[in-house]
């Protein structure tokens, strides 16, 4: 009797979920979800920048157009990929909140042309260090990242407060009340909304703040004039100026982003079912960030960074296609070119922006606390964190502490983020050796199967 052959298993699809095409009737609503989930970040960041730098409404509208277009271009680049630029994963791109904080610090201390030049220097540095990716990323373990993010959050809360109080620090009661109502509306939206709508809590809070300002007379809503479609203005602050010492906060931050990019890339790869390959994908993500940031520096923005916050939408909907985030990028470009949208948003009262920004940067500070909680604070770790936080907080608590020092020392030590981060990096490297000497030897990577990091492409 001839044996019957076992039935062949069904052929697997040649197309991975991340590369699957989505029907047009589903593509637009799915892309709109991603836009709604991330639109609050560029809007609030632009108005924090405009309020802090006292930009004219027309300049604010142009800056918002630039940021939205760059967010869209970044999403397209990361999702579709060109050569070795872009990881071809469902990523979106945003103006970095922490990077914006440092940009504003440089602008206030050294002027906006120097801040624009600092963005260009930081983006160029990121491209330059990619061949050394595996070595550089080891300088920024969770302990160092936690200190850096916590200090950025604290510094920016102070800056955001000035949007409410004004540059002299003496706020009018109605401005403080309007900011408080905006914060309350933001918290209410976060508590009451569900799913993807919860991620729009900041934007919802800002909208509620504007309505309250107009209804109660606590503020005014005056959109900038203009209509139709237009391109953002090139070099809004004039010709960029290059000062390496002044740019140091952003230079250090650009290196720390490699650690964050690594985690986000691995998480996104796992979410869409692709085997993580940091050595290949992280440099591609970083190159896209750097290239978009180089263009952004010419249009007045700070560093643009790839964000993994939209990964939750992919998990919620079960759609893992990178073409959805590419379509979201196209929508963002369209919104950025629509002049009425950006000029209407330019009329938001400063106190409303200040209230929303307080929430955003308080959340950044909490993120730093969470990173420190995950860090190894045993042995010398607690001492490293304590001294790094002390070095970072001193310039904030005693602003005149380094007034008698040379200019280069004031630039380095007077920036809480730079002083704290450099202290954390140095102490983690130096004191960590004592922990390793007394620790139980770890098994060889060859015995445990732990992969060694390979050189990037």
Automatic annotation (TrEMBL):
Report which superkingdom the organism of origin falls in.
Bacteria
Chain coiled-coil ranges: none
Subcellular location, principal = membrane
Keywords carried by this UniProt record: Cell membrane, Membrane, Transmembrane, Transmembrane helix, Transport
Q: How does it sit in the membrane?
A: Multi-pass membrane protein
Q: Which residues cross the membrane?
A: 35-53, 59-77, 114-133, 140-161, 173-193, 200-221, 290-311, 323-345, 351-372, 384-402, 408-431
Pfam families according to UniProt: Xan_ur_permease
Q: Where in the cell is it found?
A: Cell membrane
- What family does this chain come from, according to its entry? Belongs to the nucleobase:cation symporter-2 (NCS2) (TC 2.A.40) family.
Q: What is this protein called?
A: Uracil-xanthine permease family protein
Q: Where is the organism placed in the taxonomic lineage, from the top?
A: Bacteria, Bacillati, Actinomycetota, Actinomycetes, Kitasatosporales
């Amino acid at each position: 009797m001839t044996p019957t052959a076992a039935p062949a298993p069904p052929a697997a699809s040649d197309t991975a979920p991340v590369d699957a095409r989505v029907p047009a009737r589903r593509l637009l609503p799915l892309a709109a979800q991603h836009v709604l989930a991330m639109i609050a970040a560029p809007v609030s960041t632009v108005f924090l920048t405009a309020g802090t730098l006292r930009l004219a409404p027309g300049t604010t509208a142009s800056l918002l157009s630039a940021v939205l277009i760059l967010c869209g271009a970044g999403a397209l680049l990361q999702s579709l990929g060109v050569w070795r630029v872009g990881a071809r994963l469902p990523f979106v791109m945003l103006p970095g909140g922490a990077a914006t904080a440092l940009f504003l610090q440089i602008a206030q201390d050294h002027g906006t042309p120097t801040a624009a030049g600092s963005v260009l220097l930081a983006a160029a540095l990121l491209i330059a260090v990619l061949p050394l990716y595996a070595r550089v990323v080891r300088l920024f373990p969770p302990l160092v990242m936690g200190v850096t993010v916590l200090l950025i959050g604290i510094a920016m809360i102070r800056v955001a407060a000035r949007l409410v109080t004004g540059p002299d620090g003496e706020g009018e009661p109605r401005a403080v009340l309007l900011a408080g109502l905006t914060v309350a509306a933001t918290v209410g939206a976060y508590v009451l909304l569900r799913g993807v709508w919860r991620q729009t809590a900041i934007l919802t809070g800002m909208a509620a703040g504007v309505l309250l300002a107009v209804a109660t007379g606590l503020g005014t809503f005056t959109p900038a004039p203009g209509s139709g479609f237009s391109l953002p203005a090139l070099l809004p602050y004039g010709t960029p100026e290059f000062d390496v010492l002044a740019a140091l906060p952003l230079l250090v931050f650009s290196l720390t982003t490699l650690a964050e990019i690594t985690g986000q890339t691995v998480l996104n790869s796992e979410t869409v079912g692709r085997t993580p390959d940091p050595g290949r994908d992280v440099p591609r993500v970083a190159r896209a960030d750097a290239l978009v940031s180089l263009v952004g520096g010419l249009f007045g923005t700070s560093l643009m960074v790839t964000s993994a916050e939209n990964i939750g939408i992919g998990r919620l909907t079960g759609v893992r296609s990178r073409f959805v985030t590419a379509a979201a990028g196209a929508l963002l470009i369209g919104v950025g070119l629509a002049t009425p949208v950006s000029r209407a948003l330019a009329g938001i009262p400063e106190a409303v922006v200040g209230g929303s920004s307080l929430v955003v940067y308080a959340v950044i500070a909490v993120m730093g606390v969470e990173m420190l909680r995950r860090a190894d604070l045993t042995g010398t770790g607690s001492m490293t964190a304590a001294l790094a936080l002390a070095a970072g907080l001193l310039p904030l608590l005693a602003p005149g502490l380094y007034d008698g020092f040379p200019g280069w020392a004031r630039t380095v030590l007077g920036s809480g983020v730079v002083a704290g981060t450099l202290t954390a990096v140095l102490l983690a490297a130096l004191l960590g050796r004592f922990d390793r000497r007394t620790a139980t030897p770890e098994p060889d990577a060859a015995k445990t199967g732990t992969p060694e990091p390979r050189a990037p492409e």
